[in-house]
Structure formats: C-alpha cells, structure tokens
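FAQ: What does a ligand-bound record look like?

Like this one, built around zinc ion:
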Amino acid sequence: MTGFGSLMNRLRNFRHPRILVLMYHRIDDVEMDPWKIAVHPRHFEAQLQVLTKWNVIPASRIGDFNSKKSFRKPAVCITFDDGYRDNVENALPLLEKYECPASFFINTSYIGKQKEFWWDMLESIFLSDIPLPEKIELSHSGEKFEFDLGQDANMHAETMKAHTKDWIAWEKAPGQRHEIFYKVWDIFRKCPPFQRDSMAEQLLDYVANHYKPDQRRYPLTDAQFELLADHPLINIGAHTHSHPALPALNYTTAREEILLGKTNLEARMGKKVWNMSYPFGSYNKETLALLAELDIDQAFTTEAIPVEPHSHTLRLGRYQVMDLDGDAFEKQLQQWFLFRN
Ligand SMILES: [Zn+2]
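The answer part, i.e. the structure of the complex:
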C-alpha cells in the first residue's frame, strides 16, 4: 500500500468520510518544551510538504460532508492555539508557500502585550535557575497555598537544564521546582482570572529582579494580529480572554471569558467570530449552552478523534502535532486516519 493514493483508502474515505484536525501552538526552535507544544520550523515545513498530498480544508468547510469533491483525498484542517508571535514569524510564510489555509484561536487579553502568557511565566520562574525563596505562599479569597522548595530553591543552571530538557509536564517531576511548577499551573488554570492575576503578582514579588521573560514566546503584536485578520488563508477564532479552564469557573465568569474573547476579536476585525477552541480542551454542559447562546457555531476540543459526519459541531476533536520530521509525521497521520471508533 503506498500512502493514501491507494484505491482502498479512497473507497474507505468515500464511505466513511473523516477529517483530521491538527493542533499546533508554537513553531520555533526551542531548548525545552515541557508541554510538547513547539514544532521546529524545519519540521513544520516538512509536515506541510506531506500535507500537499492531502486535502487541506479551512475550518469553514468542516461539516461539508455532502460535497464529494472535498473528500476525494483525505482531508485535514490546520489550527493554532493561543496566538504566539512565532506563528506569524515562522508559520505564516510557510502556510503561504504551500497555500494552506489555517485557523488561529487567540486569547484576547494578550494581543499586543510585551509579556509572557501566564503558563510561560511559570515556566520562566520555576524551570530556570533564578533564585527562589525556600518557601512560597500564594493566597486568594482567604485560601492559602504554601510551597516548600527546600534545596531546590537555588539550582545551578546546568543541573536545571539537564533535569528539564526531556521532562514532560504530566510525567513524574524530577525535583521540587518541577513539582511546584505543575501544582501552581493547575491552581492557576482553575482560578477565576482576577484571582490568578493576583497570585501571579504575588509570585513575581518573590522574584522581582531575577525574572527574565523569554521574548521569543511573547504573544502576537497588534500589527501581526492585523496581518492575520486580513489574510485570505487565515480564519481567526476565539480562545477566551485569558485562558482559564472554563468548567472550573462559575457561570457568570465563564460567560464573561467567552464573551470577551469573542467580542474583543470582533471589535478588532470588524467581522463576526463564529468558531473557537477550548483552553486545555476542557468544557462541560454549561460551556456548550453558553456557546450556543453566544452564537458560536463550531468549537474544538483536544480529544484525539477525527471529525465525522455525526460529530457534534461544538465538540470537534483535534490531534496535537509533535515535533516530528516529515516521515514520522506521515506515519502518524496514517495511524490517526485509520483510527476506528
Ligand atoms: Zn490554549
């Protein structure tokens, strides 16, 4: 069987049409990446070359299963979450080169800001060699969180690098800093935004002069956002205002996060925002009801399943693409495509 040109696959695709939605975050050459969200620009180009054999469709064509022409070749849809500066610097020129449409789901509280996303800030503080106090205390609304860094309060740069280089955030932590990094991340994502911001300030007070943000992972500038907004290959969708886990918030706060994330984009672009992706892929019944109320027709999770004709349009699965070369990526795509429920 040679890839997807085979008759077998064409027949399979005709009878059981499915779309693979790919999820990217950063396109850059990075030293450490505990969330596995960065793809090297060279690998991204190799992946796009593989995708030229597929049918790359824009998000607006998902659900268009009646159009037989669309599904003569297996279909994929490319998406990016969060709105990193490197998306325009490194990904956009390649999307243009291979004429691939893509969707960008962007957090509106970060556009144009010279600062790290909150989860990247935690990485710069905990997964670096900056000196930390032995005890850190964060509090909000009468709730107190205490962290004991012990000997890991001070780490040598080389030791830290060695511990962190291949570490994946959801696996066993190699030390106190890594463990506390994950705990604080989990608290922050489940917090109402104003409480998370307040705790972020408390944390920054502990490291004031030592914190060195990594500018390569800053959010889009205003000009970069405008470039994307006017680009014929690009669809911009919502990703909330400040990236909380929506099911952890009460109704009013969840509604405000979704609404602000949508209306801020609409005000900037002068056009309707009709799709979004859920931060951390998480949603519940209340989230789905809010999306329907706020006139969002299409939403993506992070559940690794293909889109099929029966898929719920507010619960569309996506596959997180890893930093793979062209051959490994093609193998991975084929496995995803042949997945059976
Ligand atoms: Zn996100």
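Follow-up question: can I read anything off the structure? Yes, for example: DSSP finds eleven helices and twelve strands in the chain.
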